[in-house]
């Protein structure tokens, strides 16, 4: 197949990481793959395989849509896949423009590109005007697209019930996650005792933004009052100054670390004793699957995708919908004291591995091609 993936940029966001993974894996399967981005990114980029052709569209929404339409008309991709609401909206507009151009030139060389729109978050509509349009216009986008992908059943229900996406166009495909199978510089824990022997290192990860509620995690960690415990929060974002001040105010400078963007997160998972996600709500939770893949016990929010991923708490502990500091601290203390058996977590994480995700997307693309025929 000839495939086009379209994202804002190669930044370290969940949706962008997923699209870079999909593009790279389909290229390795000998498909003709292009990744189009709105703007270039010079650092903290997710890895992209050299087999993927990278195209930087001209910045600015109008210019982007125009250039994307030209690309669709000229290259005649079998499928074009966009991630997040704003880019899904722009891809749909570009597809309309390309089809209008085809009508002016009726002897088009091949059928128009089928578009697949993927949605990755509950609150994408809050990130800008185009993102809001990408949600409000879902009844229309449902008609223009071949399929609309949600990354969890809870998000799929939200797109249908709140935003009126057509049920017959909606499909849920969990995000593909790289799961360690043969680590070279560490060993995955085999028993609960392996985890119990580790130092009390609490790990979390994500963009430093308000919705992740890292301030709640830091305050909760402070309540542990354990001089031997440490907290590491991987990621970068606008909340760094606020979180740094909070760490200093609580006297935690020697116990809490904000290392920023980390390309190789494996060593942190391999040293941690547990993983905590205190987000208000998550549509999926890539980091949860990564933590499970390393055998770690996880504490997570109880809204959105995490209850699905953890099978309603069977593979991890779910916090309340609006947990207080003492509740998180109590849960942290409990899991550090008894981290449990890593084996079921490692086995469960494999159901979200890259091979499974690629197979589901490949099945979807083949189904769309059958619809076309």
Structural features, described:
By secondary structure, this protein is an alpha/beta fold. The chain folds into two domains: 2-176 and 353-372, Glycogen Phosphorylase B (Rossmann fold, 3-Layer(aba) Sandwich); 192-351, 3-Layer(aba) Sandwich (Rossmann fold), CATH 3.40.50.2000. Helices cover 42% and strands 16% of the residues. It has 15 helices and 13 strands. The protein has a seven-stranded parallel β-sheet with strand order 3-2-1-4-5-6-7, sandwiched between helices. Strand 6, helix 6 and strand 7 (170-172) form a beta-alpha-beta unit. The longest helix has 20 residues, at 85-104. The radius of gyration is 22 Å and the shape is elongated.
Defining key terms:
6-stranded parallel beta sheet; Rossmann fold; alpha/beta; 2 domains; 15 helices; elongated; 373 residues; single chain
Give the total of domains. 2
CATH architecture of the largest domain: 3-Layer(aba) Sandwich
User: What kind of sheet is the major sheet?
Assistant: 7 strands, parallel
CATH homologous superfamily descriptor of the largest domain: Glycogen Phosphorylase B
Beta-sheet strand percentage? 15-25%
Supply the number of helical segments: 15
Structural classification = alpha/beta
CATH class of the largest domain: Alpha Beta
**Topology as a string of helices (H) and strands (E):** EHEEHEHEHHEHEHEHEHEHEHEHEHHH
Helix content: 40-55%
Give the CATH topology of the largest domain.
Rossmann fold
- Shape type: elongated
């Amino acid at each position: 197949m000839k495939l086009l993936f379209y994202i804002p940029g190669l930044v370290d966001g969940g949706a962008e990481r997923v699209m870079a993974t999909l593009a790279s894996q389909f290229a390795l399967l000998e498909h003709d793959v292009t990744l189009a981005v709105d703007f270039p990114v010079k650092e903290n980029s997710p890895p992209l395989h050299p087999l993927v052709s990278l195209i930087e569209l001209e910045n600015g929404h109008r210019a982007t849509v125009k250039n994307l339409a030209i690309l669709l008309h000229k290259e005649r991709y079998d499928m074009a896949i966009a991630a997040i609401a704003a880019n899904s909206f722009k891809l749909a507009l570009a597809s309309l423009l390309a089809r209008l151009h085809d009508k002016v030139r009726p002897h088009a060389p091949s059928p128009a590109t089928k578009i697949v729109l993927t949605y990755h978050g509950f609150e994408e509509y809050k990130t800008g005007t185009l993102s809001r349009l990408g949600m409000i216009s879902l009844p229309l986008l449902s008609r223009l697209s071949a399929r609309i992908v949600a990354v969890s059943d809870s998000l799929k229900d939200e797109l249908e019930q709140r935003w009126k996406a057509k049920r017959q166009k909606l499909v849920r495909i969990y995000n593909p996650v790289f799961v360690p199978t043969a680590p070279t510089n560490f060993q995955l824990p085999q028993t609960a005792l392996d985890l119990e022997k580790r130092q009390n290192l609490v790990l979390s990860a994500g963009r430093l933004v308000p919705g992740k509620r890292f301030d709640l995690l830091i305050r909760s960690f402070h309540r542990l009052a354990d001089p031997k415990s440490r907290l590491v929060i991987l990621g970068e974002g606008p909340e760094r100054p606020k979180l740094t001040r909070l760490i200093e105010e609580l006297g935690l400078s020697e116990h809490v670390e904000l290392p920023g963007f980390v390309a190789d997160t494996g060593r942190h998972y391999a040293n941690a004793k547990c993983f905590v996600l205190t987000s208000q709500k998550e549509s999926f939770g890539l980091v949860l699957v990564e933590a499970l893949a390393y055998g770690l016990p996880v504490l997570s929010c109880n809204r959105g995708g995490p209850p699905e991923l953890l099978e309603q708490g069977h593979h991890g502990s779910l916090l309340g919908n609006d947990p207080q500091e003492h509740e998180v601290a109590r849960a942290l203390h409990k899991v550090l004291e008894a981290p449990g058996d890593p084996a079921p977590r490692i086995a469960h994480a494999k159901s979200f591995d890259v091979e499974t995700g690629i197979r589901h997307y490949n099945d979807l693309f083949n189904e769309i091609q059958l619809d076309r025929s």
